[in-house]
Write a structure and sequence with these properties.
alpha/beta; magnesium ion binding; metal-binding; beta-phosphoglucomutase activity; 2 domains; 210 residues; globular; 8 helices; HAD-like_SPP
Length: 210
């Protein structure tokens, strides 16, 4: 842990909270399909791929769609989501996120993103932190979803570091499991109850700012 050479950040829930925009887009889709989708039900979609998220949504609505139609619905949801996040600004960064990234930069730590999001680049640019990342591994560069360690192993590889020299920052259980499976030290963002497998848990990155 003392020898952190690389820091790998999940995006959602760690640096920024785009969950509300995902929720609004899924809710809009559910409403169009004729049923409602609550915030409680939305918990089931956390850290889950877009394909699986739609399957869960359709199961909740008791609706069956063929693969072609599912693909169309996923695109529709994503278009709405992209419209929502276009208006994001640096103000939406989670407390301490930019300060901590700048602190790591100053300390010479290499920084990577390790996120399932396929829209990571546009989000980082909207938040004005894109240039702080040495490597960006997002949903366009991996085939396996967390808890598979692929995203974090690729991030370490991109940084030119071994897994044990990297620390993962994650807010979802599947992400914590992926970090551990990659052989990395994992700092959970949230609570110990929700992230029991993390090596250390903080409420937010602001707790790590010196």
């Amino acid at each position: 842990m003392e020898t952190m050479k690389g820091a790998i950040f999940d995006l959602d829930g760690v640096l920024v909270d785009t969950a509300k925009y995902h929720y609004l887009a899924w809710k809009k889709l559910a409403n169009q399909l004729g049923f409602d989708f609550t915030e409680e039900e939305n918990e089931q979609l956390k850290g889950v791929s877009r394909v699986r998220s739609l399957e869960i949504l359709l199961e909740l609505g008791g609706i069956e769609k063929d693969e072609l139609e599912q693909s169309r619905l996923r695109e529709m949801k994503n278009d709405w989501y992209l419209t929502f996040i276009k208006d994001m600004t640096e103000d939406e960064l989670l407390k301490g996120a930019k300060e901590y990234l700048l602190q790591l930069k100053k300390e010479g730590v290499k920084i990577s993103l390790g996120s399932a999001s396929k829209n990571a680049v546009s989000i980082l640019k909207s938040l004005n932190i894109y240039e702080l990342f040495d490597v960006i591994i997002d949903g366009t560069k991996v085939t396996n979803a967390k808890p598979d360690p692929e995203v974090f192993l690729k991030a370490a590889q991109g940084l030119g570091l071994s897994p044990e020299d990297c620390i993962v920052f994650e807010d979802a259980q599947a992400g914590v499991q992926a970090g551990k499976a990659a052989g990395m030290y994992v700092i959970g963002i949230g609570t110990k109850e929700n992230l029991p497998e993390a090596d250390k848990v903080v409420a937010g990155l602001y707790e790590l700012v010196k």
